[in-house]
Design goal:
Blueprint lengths: L1 H28 E9 L9 E12 L3 H11 L3 E5 L9 E6 L2 H14 L6 H16 L6 H12 L8
Antiparallel strand pairs: 1-2, 2-4, 3-4
Amino acid sequence: MSSKKAFGADNQQERLRFIGWIVGFVDGEGCFTVSFFKHPKSRLRLKWQVFPEFVITQEIKTKNAVEKIKKFFNCGAIYLNKRYDNHHEHLLKYVVRNREDLLEKIIPFFEKYPLLSAKKKDFQTFARIIRMMDKGEHLKENGLAKIRLMVRKMNNRKFR
């Protein structure tokens, strides 16, 4: 019986190492971003769509790492971004856009296992925006304005 406990402890240690690896990977290569798209024919009064994304971008040679992260979170999609510039490899983008996945998987993970870089603040802002959207605040003029101000301060953008 003690061998099962020891084996379980080894699995737990390996899981924690993997979680640390994911946090470090996202600290280096991840991004929490929110975009806005105008939809003139939208039935929504404000005609704007708020578009949050969690993204990890990597060269195609690290496909295995990106696939492991997608499998861990069990959500999102991996897209090929073909490059025709002076770089030799295409890029892969792991993207999570579904608000439910962001609320139930991505946000709780990074709240439990915080980022260590300056992206931590961007993540916190991102999480607040997603929660505001979950309450429908992005559908009201003052809520949309608040979200716009928050986004302007994310990802090294200077407030203007």
